[in-house]
Amino acid sequence: MMNNKQSLNSRKRGRIVPFLDTPGSLLFLTSEISPFMKTGGLGDYSQALPPALLRAMEDGGEVRVFCPGFGGADKDPRLVRAGGPLKFETPWGEKTLRVLRSGKKGDAGDSQPSPVIDFLLVDDLFDRKGLYGESGQDYPDNFIRYFSWSLAVFAWMRETGFIPDVVHGNDWQTGMFFPLLRLRSMEDPSLSSIRTVFTIHNLAFKGLFPFELFSLTGFPDSWGGFDGLEYYGDLSMIKGGIVFSDYVTTVSPTYRNEVLSEPLGAGLSGALKYRGERFLGILNGIDNDIWNPSTDPMIEVPFSSAEHSGKDLDRKCLQGKGRFVLPDAPVIGCVTRMTPQKGIDLLLAGIEEWFSRKGSPFSFFLLGTGDPVLEKKARELESKYSGMVRAVIGFDEPLSHQIYAGSDFFIMPSRYEPCGLAQMYAMRYGSVPLVFPTGGLRDTVSDGVDGLWMSALSVEGVTDILDRALKIYRDKKAFLPLRRHAMEKNNSWEERTGEYLRLYKGLPSSVPGSGQDLLMARMALKM
Ligand code: ADP
User: Fold this and answer.
1) Residue 522 burial (C-beta neighbours within 10 Å; 0-12, 13-18, 19+)
2) Which residue has its alpha carbon closest to ligand 1 atom 22?
3) What pLDDT is attached to residue 110?
């Protein structure tokens, strides 16, 4: 009999097994799903991709989504009871699972099929204010929460008799499912046919916990090494997905290339290189029905690229909300998690520098929350330049739509950006993106065609791009085509689901650069 390490390695190197022939079944695991719970792009991705996959799978395909419960889920009128209480074992004793289901089968008149979404509530582990923590502090029991949740996934699969062809998990919160599946497949042959895909949305979030917890997992010792779950002396949940899934993907081809070396590999570039041609970059899309300025109920006046007079009225509304005093000045918007990743420090310093130099006028509307130091700086900028700067600190979905609709430019000076959805929403709403060309920003914005690229990641880079944008804004012959191209760019999921389906079927990828060059990189590593 092979020891565990041998079987792990032989599986990693094994032949590519066909995943699913239509009809097939897919189980999608995620810790966020809009409009129920969202801290960033993962929530939108999980809301949009499973239905797009279901549509693309045509007749007979089945897509189900499992998420953790969330604060107040019990009282949410959109959900119905689907099962439980059900007891299951965890390293912390017996726990109780209850399941709530999204009753939505599509709005009235909507004939599109939608995936069933099950929210798995485990004791009181998820009925909290935050998803991962509160007031900038992670919950101290996050390992217990998400390890128990992965165990609950098995309990619910068993209870409902649902053995999918493919499980597609996302980010560290679902990472422990993959080694658990490997372990359980050894005892239960019905699980061994399940093929797996794991998607990384941001490698900076590695799900790190004290390594002592490894002894509770029940995994063989050999899975605790650097080629298993260990990460520089800690236990990393994201490595569960990276090491133990059949395929790993991330959310843009450029970010895939960037994380194969440091520093963007965040210490995991070696593990990713080892996955070779099994690590792909598949560009995210957006849901063009939800993010549609001609039907969006959250904005004041609808508009489209053919009829954009409504956009001027949306700008006026936003100018009112911002208490802006310069009616003719362009509005620059920003909707963001306020973290160093997003370059908010550079942005605030660049805007301050611009105003102190008395550069040409614009109004700046920021919506964000995150790092308390950055939040304070944003508030200070607002009070120093009131009438030109508005900083709303918080998470506000309707206001985010109003900023996309009412702004002329949308700025994202990200230090790195796995994909970024905000720039794609901005484009669809006619707000020209100003971006640092990293990761998915490079893959979705073309400089001078449908947006503008910063030439440097610095305060000067910010003031330079402001200068360029404001000059273009004054020249309508240059600005209007830029805006039209942005609005007409098709970033919809329909364009992109095919790549996931190919992967589920074990077909060779059509993603440029995903095969040969990685194979070469891997060979070079071995030399
Ligand atoms: P990330 O996932 O890294 O945060 P993305 O650009 O992929 O970045 O996705 C961000 C999503 O979160 C977008 O839908 C954006 O509108 C939304 N968002 C970010 N911050 C806020 C906020 N403070 N209020 C409302 N929506 C926000």
Assistant:
1) middle
2) 395
3) 54
Indicate if the pLDDT at residue 428 is higher than 90.
yes
- On whether both 238 and 346 belong to a single domain, the answer is no
- For residue 299, how far is its CA from the centre of ligand 1 (angstroms)? 17
Protein residue with its CA nearest to atom 19 in ligand 1: 336
Secondary structure (3-state) at 440: helix
What's at 276, amino acid-wise? G
Q: Is 79 in the pocket of ligand 1 (CB under 6 A)?
A: no
Task: Give yes or no: residues 211 and 277 share one domain.
Answer: yes
Q: Is the CB of 40 under 6 A from ligand 1?
A: yes
Dihedrals phi, psi of 308, to nearest 5 degrees: -105, 20
270-281 pLDDT, tens digit per residue, is 999 999 999 999
CA angle 171, 177, 178 (to 5 degrees): 90
Q: How far is the CA of 422 from the centre of ligand 1 (A)?
A: 6
Query: d(Cα 221, Cα 198) in Å, to the nearest integer?
Result: 23
Q: Reduced to 3 states, what is the DSSP secondary structure of residue 262?
A: coil
pLDDT tens string 272-331? 999 999 999 999 999 999 999 999 999 999 999 888 889 999 999 999 999 999 999 999
Residue 513 CB burial class (10 angstroms; 0-12, 13-18, ≥19)? middle
Question: Scanning the structure block, which residue is given the tokens 């003719």?
Answer: 328
Number of domains making up the chain: 2
Q: Is the pTM of the predicted complex or chain greater than 0.85? A: yes
Same domain, 314 and 182: no
Is the distance from the beta carbon of residue 395 to the nearest atom of ligand 1 less than 6 Å? yes
Q: Which domain holds residue 71?
A: 21-131+139-285+495-526
Q: Is 290 in the pocket of ligand 1 (CB under 6 A)?
A: no
Strand ranges for 226-356 from DSSP E: 230-231, 234-236, 247-250, 279-281, 331-338
Pocket of ligand 1 contains residue 331 by CB under 6 Å: no
Ligand 1 in contact with 338 (CB < 6 A)?
no
**CATH value at residue 114:** 3.40.50.2000
Length of the chain: 527
Rounded distance between C-alpha atoms, residue 122 and residue 171, angstroms:
20
Please check whether residue 279 is in contact with residue 439, taking contact to mean a CB–CB distance below 8 angstroms: no
Question: 302 CB less than 6 Å from ligand 1?
Answer: no
What's the gap in Å between 205 CA and the centre of ligand 1? 16
Distance 337 CA to ligand 1 centre (A): 6
Q: Whose CA is nearest to atom 24 of ligand 1?
A: 395
3-state secondary structure of 236: strand
Q: Is residue 422 lining ligand 1, measured as CB closer than 6 Å?
A: yes
